[in-house]
Design a protein that fits this description.
about 260 residues; mainly beta; Immunoglobulin-like; 2 helices; about 5% helix; DUF4249 domain-containing protein; DUF4249
Length: about 260
């Protein structure tokens, strides 16, 4: 079946997340649209789930018509590239509302998203913290909130090119000031594939997203307890979501000698 990543809390006291894969809950085949427009361009993926009794993976959809329209009237048709992906150099502009239209086999799916301003990272560091009787390695990410507006953020950490941790955050607790996101990595003494090794490359992507995208991603956190799909982000009945976001990237090689100790 078609797989999607969702996030779960590692420790109830921490706003930290871990990536695992689950199946969409769908008795029948359904379309899935996953789309972004950012500073560099547009990428849309169209695929299908398989029915619950079908154990194969979902299928790419290569015959969709994909159109993006800005609130100033600018329209772009996003061309098919390969394997269900549609890509264009059509880049987003902060403050603009974008409407994504996908037509395929007589069905029409629509979603909208507002492009946000570019986020700013103040610091990313690795730190050992003691939780009760155990030491845990954390990634401590600090953002400078975009001033004088409500903001929502989607932060994704990749390890050697593969998804490792991600989280969403809003600025309601500390608006216009520094925001902190703690990612739990692993327990000291743990021995499995989750443990970082010297020389691993960490790639941090920080996206400023709108509330619709935040609400969708936040609802994914509830999937493990509710056994349901995330909230609808599209009209027309497809799964998936569309997000117009500004993003920044940061790279750091991991070495144990660089990890600091938190005595608090």
């Amino acid at each position: 079946m078609r797989r999607l990543l969702y996030i779960i809390g590692i420790l109830g006291l921490m706003s930290c997340t871990k990536e695992i894969s689950i199946d969409y809950h769908s008795h029948d085949t359904r379309y899935v649209v996953e789309g972004t427009i950012n500073n560099d361009g547009t990428e849309i993926r169209v695929s299908t789930t398989n029915a619950m009794e079908d154990n194969t993976t979902g299928s790419d959809v290569n015959n969709a018509t994909v159109t993006l329209t800005a609130d100033d009237g600018t329209t772009a048709t996003i061309p098919f590239v390969r394997n269900g992906y549609y890509r264009s150099k059509f880049a987003g502009i902060a403050g603009t509302v974008y409407k994504l239209d996908v037509e395929v086999d007589g069905q029409h799916f629509t979603s909208t998203s507002t492009m946000q301003r570019t986020p700013k990272m103040n610091e990313f560091k690795l730190v050992w913290k003691k939780m009760l009787t155990e030491r845990y390695l954390f990634g401590d990410l600090r953002l400078q909130d975009i001033p004088n507006e409500s903001n929502w953020y989607f932060m994704h950490i990749y390890r050697n090119g593969l998804g490792y941790r991600w989280a969403v955050m809003k600025d309601d607790k500390n608006p216009n000031k520094e925001l902190q996101q703690l990612f739990t990595f692993f327990r000291d003494g743990q021995h499995d594939n989750d443990v970082l090794q010297d020389g691993d490359e960490l790639h941090i992507v920080i996206r400023a997203i709108d509330q619709r995208a935040y609400d969708y991603l936040y609802s994914m956190q509830q999937m493990s307890s509710t056994a349901t799909n995330p909230i609808d982000n599209f009209t027309g009945g497809c799964l998936g979501y569309f997000s117009a976001n500004s993003e920044i990237e940061y790279y750091q090689d991991f070495y144990y000698r660089d990890v600091t100790e938190d005595d608090e």
